[in-house]
Every structure is written in structure tokens, then in C-alpha cells.
Amino acid sequence: MTNDASTTPSQRHYGPGYRAMLLALIMLVAAFAYVDRVIVQTLGQPIKEDLGLTDFQLGLLGGLGFAILYSTLGLPIARLAERRDRITIISVSVGLFSLMSALCGLSANFWQLFLCRIGVGIGEAGVQAPSTSLIGDHFPPHQRGFAITMMRLGSPLGSFIGALAAVWIAKDHGWRTAMIAVCGPGLIVALLFRLLLRDPPRGLSDGLNNGARPTSKAATPPPPMGEVMSMMARKAVFRNLLIGLALSSMALYAGGAFTAPFFMRVHDLSITQAGVYVAIISSTAATAGMVLGGVGIDFIARRGQHWYALLPFCGIATSVPLYLVGYSLGSPLPALVCLTVAGVFLFFYSVPTLVALQNLVAPNARTTAAFIYFFIATLVGVGLGPPIIGLASDIFAGLAMPGFKSVCTDARLTGACATASAWGVRHALLASIALYALAAFHYWRAACALKRDASLSA
After folding, report:
1. What angle is formed at CA 50 by the lines to CA 48 and CA 51, rounded to 5 degrees?
2. Which residues contact 134 (CB under 8 A, 6 or more apart)?
3. What's the sign of the alpha-carbon dihedral 282, 155, 113, 101?
4. Which of 134-138, 219-223, 276-280, 384-388 is least confident?
5. CA 238, CA 232: separation in Å to the nearest integer?
6. Percentage of residues of the chain with pLDDT beyond 70
7. Given this model, what pLDDT does residue 62 score?
């Protein structure tokens, strides 16, 4: 721990070793949250066949069923976290979503599974925004890109573990056992989080770029939610950042929900092979993209704050042609390479957007700003993306084979029905790429607004 005279006792109390432990536990929490998400996506095809679901229903399970209460409860939990102990809130939330994930494996029909996925969303609602706020109070602005990157790396870690564990367990024991198996480790992480960490003073690390003590502004009560929303609605920077976030998240989660069905239907891979492909794409793309985008933004933003939006623009714009090629190829291995590389560039948007929102608001509004980020990414991205693409897949399948829904009633499709289903999911994913193009446009506009604001300030 540092004993620098310029630091307060509170700052010395939360030293480098403690902050390293904090990041490790926050990463584990994020990882288990994504295990619960990716396991439904990876096992989508056997769940569809066992319960006799349509692609639209499958999209609801992977999207809206999880997002509906994640988003609505995220606001009161975020506002509570502005005033109460964030460590307790996160610990209870992790325990709750771990238990609800286990209950998913006991579901006998679509509606039971849908309600359990809502329960998972309730638990996860208390994780992301308070965790981001904790990072904002432990790390100064010039280190937040790295710190938030470490938190966000829980996503590919959880995706990799979840996808491989899902197919490994489901292969011999079925998808229900795989769902139940993720409960125990999450409960252990919840207990460790509560016992080892403590809630810091608000704004602890603000002003540490120049050795100053934390400002008193951090101790003021959080502004009303309406005031924060009004401020964001007035400023072009916030508007375009949040629209770009919504569009890119929508396409990202839609593609993630149907990646395994895409490879199983279009390229005729087994569930084990498709699970490995999903693990490779999700872990490699997210890890490389978040590290390059998150750590890189701490350096490149020194050239101007507009890079918080310009870097996401460059990444998303580069990913568009790669996704077009990846979904169009006739061989699975080249498609895997294209989709993985496209994902690396796509994930440039994730950390810079979240860091920008943390840097642009006051310390006592950081949890609220983080909630808005995750609310949009979840309600619009997770909630709407998969169901819309699932519906589009059903529509395209109907175009490929008139009377598809009435003729192809067996969940295990064969012959012409299987061909139409493969055609549907491929063209639905191709259509989703238009969302990336629109997202890039809004990130470009956000970069222009940031540059204009900097010029006016100068």
C-alpha cells in the first residue's frame, strides 16, 4: 500500500493490493453473470427441440425473458446503490441470479423457463451498474479504461466457460443438468465478495491525476434521475453515444443468440462442434476487442476526448464487411475466422463508451450513468435483438418455403424444412448487419460533438 503524504487515510486504506483483489472479484462476478446468459444461447437448439419452440420463442428466452426485469429493476437498484452499501447489493444479486439459473433447468415448458429467465434478470440487475461505480471510486480517470476493461473481460471469460461447460455437460446429461450445474460456483463468489470487500467513500479517486484530494462534490446527494436524463437528452454527445450503443448491442446480442443455431443449421455441425465455435468466437473476439479498445483508449484519448467515440466508429465500421462475408461463406472454418475477426473490431465500442459516460458525469451520478449504459444495452440489445432476429428468421424461412410453419411442425427439422430453416437464420443474421452500419454513423456524430465541445471549451 502506498504511504504518499498527498493521499488521505482512506486512499491508503484502499491500496494497490486491495484494488487488484477488487478487480479480480468483479471480473468473476461478471463472468458468472455471462455464464448464465451464454448457456441458454449455446443450448438453444436442444432446448428448442425438447420444448418444441419457434425461433421467436427461442429469441424471447435469450433476450426479452432475461432483459425485461433486468432493465426495470436496474433503475431502483442503481439509485439505491448511490446511497447504500454497494458490496451487499452486488453479493445478494449474484446469489439470486445463481439460484434462478438452477431453476431454469427444472422448467417443463416455455412459460416456466421464460419466468425463470426473468428471475435471472432480476438478480443480474444489481451487478453491473454498482460494479462500474465501485471502479470509478477506486481508480482515477486516466486508469478507468484499464480497470473497466478488466471488469468487461468477465464477459468473454464467462462466455468461454459457459459455452464449453454447457456442451460438455449437456452431451451426456442433457441441457437441464447443464443449467443446474452453474449454480454452486456463483454462490461461492457471492460469499467471497461480501466477506472480502468494503464500500469506499464516493469520489475517492477523483483528482488523483494531479495528486489532489477527492473533491467534496462526491459527498453531495445524487441528482434526481430526471435531471440526469434531461442533461443527456440535451447534449448531442450523450444522445449519439447512447443510440450507437443501442444499435450495436442489438445486433451483437441477436448474433450471439443465433450463432450456435447458425452453425448447426447452415454448416451442419453437431452441438459439441457448435459450442466450441461459440466459445472461440465469444471469448477471442470479446477479449481481444475489449483489451485493444479498453486499454488503448487510455492512451489514444490523450490526443482528444473525441476518440472515446471515434475508436468505436472505426471498429464497428471495419466489422461490417467482415460480418457480411462470414455469414455468406459456405464453409464453417473460414466463416469462424471472419466472424471472430469481425467481433474483435466490433468490441472496440464497449469499454470506451462506458468510460466516456463515467468521465462525463459527476461522481455522485456514476451509478446512474452506468445503469443507463446497461439499461440500453440490455433492454434494447438483449431484450429486442434476439426476438426480432428470431422473428425475421421465421419470416425468411417462410419465404424460402411457403407454408413453413404449418408444414414443418416437428422441432427436429429434416429435408426441405431444414433447408428453409437454415436459409432463414442466415438471411436474418445478414439483415442484422444494417444495425452496425447505423451504429457507426451515430458514433461518428458523437465524435464530432465531442470535438466541437472541446473546441468551445478551449
Report:
1. 70
2. 22, 26, 86, 199, 200
3. positive
4. 219-223
5. 5
6. 88
7. 64
Which sign does the torsion angle of CA 375, 439, 32, 198 carry?
Answer: negative
Residue 203, pLDDT score: 65
Residue 98: closest CA among 29, 155, 150, 159: 29
d(CA 272, CA 262): 14
Shortest CA distance to 180 belongs to which of 89, 105, 74, 125?
A: 105
d(CA 204, CA 82): 14
401-425 mean pLDDT: 77
Residue 98 pLDDT exceeds 80: yes
Q: Is 37 left (phi over 0), alpha (psi -120 to 50) or beta?
A: alpha
Q: Beta-carbon neighbour count of residue 300 at 10 Å? A: 16
What is the rounded distance in angstroms from the CA atom of residue 370 to the CA atom of residue 355?
Answer: 9
Q: What is the grid cell recorded at 298?
A: 487510455
Q: Helix, strand, coil shares of the chain as percentages rounded to 5?
A: 80, 0, 20
Chain position carrying cell 443450448: 43
Please work out, in degrees rounded to the nearest 5, the angle formed at the alpha carbon of residue 263 by the alpha carbons of 439 and 29: 60
Tens of pLDDT, residues 188-208: 888 898 888 888 776 666 654
Q: Contacts from 171-179 at CB under 8 Å and sequence distance 24+?
A: 171/271, 171/272, 174/46, 175/43, 175/46, 175/47, 175/50, 175/105, 176/105, 176/106, 177/105, 178/39, 178/43, 178/105, 179/39, 179/43, 179/101, 179/102, 179/104, 179/105
Q: Where are the beta strands (DSSP E) in 75-220?
A: none
DSSP-derived secondary structure for 147-188: HHHHHHTHHHHHHHHHHHHHHHHHHHH-HHHHHHHTHHHHHH
CA 421 centroid distance within chain:
28
Q: How far apart are CA 271 and CA 353, in angstroms?
A: 35
**Which three three-digit cell numbers place residue 403?**
407454408
Spatial CA neighbour of 71 closest among 140, 27, 114, 120: 120
Comparing 284 with 8, which gets the higher pLDDT?
A: 284
Q: For 196-243, write each residue's pLDDT tens digit.
A: 888 877 666 665 444 444 444 445 677 777 777 788 878 888 899 999
Place of cell 482528444: 304
